[in-house]
Amino acid sequence: MEALLDKNTYTIPHLEGKPDMLVCQNLKKVYPTGKGDYVVLDDLHLAVRQGEFVSIIGHSGCGKSTLLTMIAGLNEISGGKVYVDQQEITGAGPDRAVVFQSPSLLPWLTAIQNVMIGVKQVFPHASSAEKTDICKYYLDKVGLGNDFHKKASSLSQGMQQRVGIARAFALKPKILLLDEPFGMLDSLTRGELQDVLLEIWQKEKITALAITHDVDESIFLADRVIMMTSGPYAKIGDELAIPFDRPRNRKDVLEHPDYYDYRGYLINFLNH
Ligand SMILES: Nc1ncnc2c1ncn2[C@@H]1O[C@H](COP(=O)(O)OP(=O)(O)OP(=O)(O)O)[C@@H](O)[C@H]1O
């Protein structure tokens, strides 16, 4: 365990000299309930550097989605502050794109029309050809180059989530927020989409924060895994830097001599 903690001092080459893109300060969330106030998160501090990929793990109900939706500006902040690129957030904005477990596409629209909705809002002054190019570029990147004009309702769940990922990247956000993005997919599709996500993330050098229940996924994706304590009054309990080389491929990660130490460390946290 000590050796692993030492590894937290490893420098991650692509983060050297990068400023913080996301800062959560003394964050608190209280849900009023019939039985009184329920304090989900309390005094939570988190800083994520520009271009960093952070995974968040923690027990079911500890407040991971609450944290993510507060950062997204979709859930009221009860106390503390969230800063994105040094600006305090006051609500949702195009600087933060969210990918939820279910992409909630408009089923009667095509793949490209679904991506276009957000692109039109974020780039109102771009020409129609430019907007179409942005949509096509990201749909192509997620492997839907031949499916631009298919209705969302005719796409498989995995393909719909590919559209969800394309839609988020197409907004060119500063931060990508992912809430169990692959939770509903079979393991093969899940693996494929993890690869797609990392490939685009690597190219765009975007800051990303992903909630996952899957310890292997948390390691494969992230530069750092954040472990949340169980609620109420949840906060960051521990963190682990994952200094595996980038770009990553699954085989190299799984065969890394330290892989099972990292995995064991995270599972040990969850078991206590
Ligand atoms: N609107 C709400 N009103 C009252 N309580 C809520 C509300 N939303 C969430 N909660 C409670 O807050 C706690 C944290 O919920 P949250 O969904 O953030 O946890 P989570 O860690 O994302 O869970 P999971 O891993 O199961 O998705 C839970 O106990 C949940 O029941």
Question: What's the N-to-C terminus distance?
Answer: 15 Å
CATH superfamily of one domain: P-loop containing nucleotide triphosphate hydrolases
Can you list the strand order of the major beta sheet?
6-7-8-3-9-10
Helix content: 25-40%
Say what the CATH topology of one domain is: Rossmann fold
Q: What is the arithmetic mean of pLDDT?
A: 94
Number of helices: 9
Rg result:
19 Å
What form results from the Cα inertia axes?
A: globular
* CATH 2nd-level architecture of one domain: 3-Layer(aba) Sandwich
What does this protein look like?
By secondary structure, the protein is of the alpha/beta class. It has nine helices and ten strands. The protein has a domain at 2-90 and 214-270: P-loop containing nucleotide triphosphate hydrolases (Rossmann fold, 3-Layer(aba) Sandwich), CATH 3.40.50.300. Helices cover 36% and strands 24% of the residues. Strands 6-7-8-3-9-10 form a six-stranded mixed beta sheet, sandwiched between helices. The two termini are 15 Å apart. Bound molecules: adenosine-5'-triphosphate (ATP). Adenosine-5'-triphosphate binds next to strand 1, strand 2 and helix 2. Residues 22-255 form the ABC transporter domain.
Question: What is this entry, summarized?
Answer:
With 272 residues, this protein is of the alpha/beta class. Helices cover 36% and strands 24% of the residues.
Characteristics:
4-stranded antiparallel sheet; globular; 10 strands; 272 residues; binds adenosine-5'-triphosphate; Rossmann fold; alpha/beta; 6-stranded mixed sheet
Outline the fold blueprint.
Elements: H1 2-7, E1 20-33, E2 36-49, E3 53-57, H2 64-72, E4 79-84, E5 87-88, E6 96-99, H3 111-122, H4 128-141, H5 157-170, E7 175-179, H6 187-204, E8 207-211, H7 215-221, E9 224-228, E10 236-241, H8 250-255, H9 259-270
Parallel strand pairs: 3-8, 3-9, 6-7, 7-8
Antiparallel strand pairs: 1-2, 1-4, 4-5, 9-10
The structure holds adenosine-5'-triphosphate.
Subcellular location: Cell membrane
Organism: Belliella marina
Protein name: ABC transporter ATP-binding protein
